[in-house]
């Protein structure tokens, strides 16, 4: 048994959709989860800002017995991972999201099929999904849809408000009009919304969480005791409420600053 931890990070509660899968298949590991709610949403920030937020979290992990980090955030994986990897590679093993799951996202699709990507503005602008998918199969067409606003629906629990439904519908219409065979939940907050998506557009939704968790499991072999520490950088009580769908957190979520 060791007091080593796996560090998991996101801008808010979204990454819990990843942590829940990690915990499901590796309940014996220890985890530290950081939701950087003070700087949320990452999706409308610049790559330099996102890099700087994440760097602070990685430095915190380094001081707290973390050797493996799961970037449970598409946006960070898209715009900051390459730089972070170079800077931290001798000290931390980092699992990025998009780069780890691109091949699973298109499994079973054929040449000329269309896949729709729902993601934050920063992820869409980075074209990271297109690059990673087209490296594997250049004939898959990726339609990227900027879903700015979805993260706030999740963080503020505005699921049933008319405005939220209207916004979601307008984005899913783009996937529908392009005859998408599959839709990627390209932001870790979106699995919170998938039941609403399914009522509006009946298509296959790909949640990267399962594939990412399996990849991580292959590489990690320390034995812990299943401890999870939750931190957020502002309003920990709100974090706890919004987290409910993936984690019914019994203990306090602790406030942290870097
Ligand atoms: N959940 C994150 C992602 O996967 C970031 C969302 C945001 O803060 O904009 O992209």
Layout of helices and strands, plus pairs?
Layout: E1 5-10, H1 16-25, E2 31-35, H2 47-62, E3 66-71, H3 74-79, H4 81-88, E4 93-95, H5 97-105, E5 114-119, H6 121-126, H7 128-136, E6 141-146, H8 150-155, H9 162-177, E7 182-185, H10 194-200, E8 204-206, H11 209-219, E9 228-232, H12 236-243, E10 254-255
Parallel strand pairs: 1-2, 1-3, 2-9, 3-4, 5-6, 5-7, 7-8, 9-10
Descriptive account of the structure:
By secondary structure, the chain is an alpha/beta fold. It folds into 2 domains: 5-98 and 210-255, Rossmann fold; 100-208, Rossmann fold (3-Layer(aba) Sandwich). Helix content is 43%, strand content 18%. It is built from 12 helices and 10 strands. The protein has helices at 16-25, 47-62, 74-79, 81-88, 97-105, 121-126, 128-136, 150-155, 162-177, 194-200, 209-219, 236-243, and strands at 5-10, 31-35, 66-71, 93-95, 114-119, 141-146, 182-185, 204-206, 228-232, 254-255. The model has no long low-confidence stretch (mean pLDDT 97). D-glutamic acid is lined by residues 10-11, 14, 40-43, 73-75, 120, 123, 151, 187-189. D-glutamic acid binds next to helix 3.
**Could you spell the SSE succession in H and E letters?**
EHEHEHHEHEHHEHHEHEHEHE
Strand order of the largest sheet: 4-3-1-2-9-10
**Spatial gap, N to C terminus:** 29 Å
Associated small molecules = D-glutamic acid
Strand content: 15-25%
Which class of the largest domain in CATH terms?
Answer: Alpha Beta
């Amino acid at each position: 048994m060791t007091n080593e931890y796996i560090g998991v990070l996101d801008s808010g509660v979204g990454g819990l959709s990843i942590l829940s899968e990690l915990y499901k298949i590796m309940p014996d590991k220890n985890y530290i989860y950081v939701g950087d709610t003070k700087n949320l949403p990452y999706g409308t920030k610049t790559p330099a800002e996102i890099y700087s937020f994440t760097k602070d979290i990685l430095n915190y992990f380094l001081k707290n017995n973390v050797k493996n980090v799961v970037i449970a955030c598409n946006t960070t994986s898209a715009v900051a991972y390459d730089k972070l990897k170079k800077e931290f590679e001798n000290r931390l093993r980092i699992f990025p999201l998009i780069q780890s799951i691109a091949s699973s996202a298109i499994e079973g699709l054929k040449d000329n099929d269309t896949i729709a990507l729902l993601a934050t503005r920063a992820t869409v602008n980075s074209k990271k999904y297109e690059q990673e998918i087209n490296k594997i199969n250049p004939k898959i067409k990726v339609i990227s849809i900027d879903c700015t606003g979805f993260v706030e629906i999740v963080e503020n629990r505005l699921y049933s408000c008319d405005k939220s439904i209207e916004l979601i519908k307008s984005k899913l219409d783009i996937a529908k009009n392009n005859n998408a065979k599959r839709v990627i939940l390209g932001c870790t907050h979106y699995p919170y919304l998938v039941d609403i998506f399914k009522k509006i557009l009946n298509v296959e939704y790909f949640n990267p969480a399962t594939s990412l968790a399996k990849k991580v499991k292959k590489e990690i072999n320390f034995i812990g005791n299943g401890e999870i520490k939750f931190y957020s950088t502002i309003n920990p009580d709100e974090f706890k409420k919004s987290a409910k769908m993936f984690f019914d957190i019994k203990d306090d979520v602790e406030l942290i600053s870097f």
